Amino acid sequence: MISHLFQTGGCELSFGTRALEEVEHTVGPLSDQRTEGVRDVGVSLLSECVILGNSELLALRSEGDVIIGGLFPVHYLVPNSQNTYNSKPQNLPCNGFDDRAFRWMMTMIFAVEEINRNPALLPGVTLGYHIMDSCDHIHTSLKALLSLLTHSTKGQNTLDSGRCLTGSPITAVVGLASSSPTGAIAHILGPFSIPLVSYFATCACLTDKHTYPSFLRTVPSDLFQVRGLVELVKFFGWNWVGTVGTPDDYSRYGIQAFSHQFRQLGGCLAYHLTIPQSPTFVEIGAMADTLQSSKAKVVVAFATEGQLLELFSEFHLLLQGTLGFSFPGVYIPGLREFLLKVRPKAEPGFEFHNMLWEEVFDCRLETFLFSAQENTTDSPERPVCTGSEDLSNVHNSYTELSKVRISYNVYKAVYAIAHALHDLLECGSVGATTAEAGCKKNASKPIELLGYLKMVNFTNQFGEKVHFDDNGEPVPLYDIINWQKDSKGKIRFVKVGSYDGSVPMDQQLQLNQSKIVWTGGLSQVPVSLCSDPCPPGSRQARRPGEPQCCFDCLPCAEGEISNQTDSTECTKCQEYYWSDKRKVECVAGVDDFLSVYDTMGIILITLTLLGVVMTTVITTVFHHFRATPIVRANNSEISFLLLVSLKLCFLCSLAFIGKPSTWTCRLRQAAFGVSFVLCLSCLLVKTIVVLLAFRSTGPGSGAMKLFGPAQQRTLILCTTAPQVCLCAGWLSAAPPFPFRNPTYQASTGMIVVECRELWPAGFYLVLGYIGLLASLCLLLAYLGRKLPDTFNEAKLITFSMIIFCAVWLSFIPAHVSSPGKFTVAVEIFAILASSFGLLLCIFVPKCFIILAQPEKNIKKRMIKSPR
User: Fold this and answer.
1) 67-80 tens-digit pLDDT
2) In this structure, are residues 427 and 449 in contact, taking their beta carbons and an 8 Å threshold?
3) 851 CB neighbour count, 10 Å cutoff
4) Contact (CB, 8 A) for 777 and 681
5) What does pTM read for this prediction?
6) Which CATH architecture is the domain 599-735+745-862 placed in?
7) Domain residue ranges in the chain
8) Per the CATH hierarchy, to which homologous superfamily does domain 44-79+90-220+405-467 belong?
9) 423-462 b/e with 16+ CB inside 10 Å = b?
10) If 0-12 CB within 10 Å is exposed, 13-18 middle and 19+ buried, where does residue 713 land?
11) What is the pLDDT of residue 437?
């Protein structure tokens, strides 16, 4: 399915009878009463063959004091003439009669006659016309223009009978429909300052007053049409469209301007097709295949309806739903009746009438005035026209006139010229007649009329203010119409909105979407995108070598969001905020720490309390049996101090659990460092006592006297003091502080609250000093492991130190690699493991003997010969 957004013929979406019928119905009474003093023109037309070289051109002409030229594309197909320059070129007739363009021509005649009947406008002066067929081609338009400029009436260009304008040449020209022929004509008329007022040439290139100084128009420039088209495409979200044009100025400039503005808004062109002047069946088929195979479901067309006719025939089923810009239509009273009076006649002046008759009724007239102008497509099989056929029963673009658009532009062009001429003729002295004033001002000069035409400003009978800006442009106002099928299956135009280029940007486009019917009778807006929109939470990723509208959608990275459709970049959340699961919103990060309510926290607290309870129980047992040899051995005072230090080791782990605060960050490392150093100092003293006791000659030896209780306390104090000083200096100069770290668990949106070390070396110095004492204890205990005593503690200390060293050597890599709160858990585990190792290895065996084997807890078993 393809939804079209065609712009044809400079905004009006209407076509010849071989394409689609347009809706322009006009009803109303025809007033043909003449104003007294104005020469009767009527509907009978004078026609003559204007000789240009050896070629004859048909024209409609009516005499008047002021002659207005007219150029209309009554035919839209020009035969290819191949001149050999060996003989005089032949005047080949144009083909493809356009009854709509003929209606424009007749509207000019209607406007001229209506002005002539108006006593308030140009009193005493009648307008005449000289109208020719331009065939919608540059060459034929130029030929017709030269006929207009070189032709004059039989009268003399002198003041005669009070009519100073009798016999004057063309004063102004109304035309043309296409931009390229109009540009060519404007080039010629410009140096002579002959006004050219176009009713349908919309190319923005014609705005250049240096190139086209005498050009004006009653149709808005494509500049506004393009802006409206871009706004319309943007409104419906179409960013992937195709364009169709023709090799002329209107199409070329229109598509160029549309493409430029469309790309500025982020749109892309899927393709551009150019319809040749005379396309072949193969070329039309190839273009149709491109339209159908493309992912672009919207086509923007800048071309005349005649050039689009064959292409449209391939898609006639899909034209329903087309949107287009059209000029506001009006009902012109009397126009319909005037048009219905047309009748065929086999006499001069009715050649175009005869062509219309044959076209509308699909018949052939037996008599032609000029055989050279006969319809070359005529066939004997066609029935003969009787001439009594009734146009009122025909429904086509010629007779359906409820609201005319281009015809209204022609109507305004004629009235603008008439008002300018009226202002020019009234510029004389007070009391002078119009004719006298005009003669004094040499009103026959077109340059005089051009100056007044640029300044014309009047309100017509339809309430519209007609004037031109500095570039000769009217007010840019459009209707937006939708092609819809009626109950009979015929295409009708329904107004669904408007575009006013003279108001602020946000008010220019007005649409009633509920009235739009799309292709296939659907009410849903069609989608025309190269890539489906990227939903919120993702971003566009351009495909290499493809337009910007073709992309892939990639999800936003962790910590980034996109809360709009088709975001080109993801936005990083601010610090301590994180993206939600859909990556569309930044949410505050959740503080994550080793809580007392976490499973891991509960387990570690339980183990800590177990260690405290066990230490308390062992302390109670030792205190109760303090007089026994096993307790008194190795200085019971040091044993109790060791139990106290172990209890502190267990308790310090509690400072690591819970949300870090200023005091817990400072306390935890100091308590850990001092407690373990105190514990190791006690073990070091016990180890030294064991070594001295069994390597001396006896219990009362000198070595033991030199290392008595006082010396033991001093050693404990001396080995603990450096750690105390280190911790005090560390906490005073660069204490750890609580820090919310969003980097560890970014994927879950957790903000890890941890204690950050300002001076990490302080922690490693504390840990290093503990390692130094542990290594020294291990070495001394290893040396005394084989001492001959049943209650030799060296073995127990050795084994406990092996566990201690193994735990803390494993702690370092685990501590570095563990993320977030697991770093704290690893440190607590190391504290508990090493504390349990010391408690179980040193005190549990002694408690077992005290409680389970009291017979071994005697002095006799304590002393053993060195041998």
Assistant:
1) 999 999 999 888 87
2) no
3) 11
4) no
5) 0.60
6) Up-down Bundle (1.20)
7) 44-79+90-220+405-467, 344-386, 538-588, 599-735+745-862
8) Response regulator (3.40.50.2300)
9) bbbeebeeeeebbbbbbebebbebebbbebbbebebeeee
10) middle
11) 46
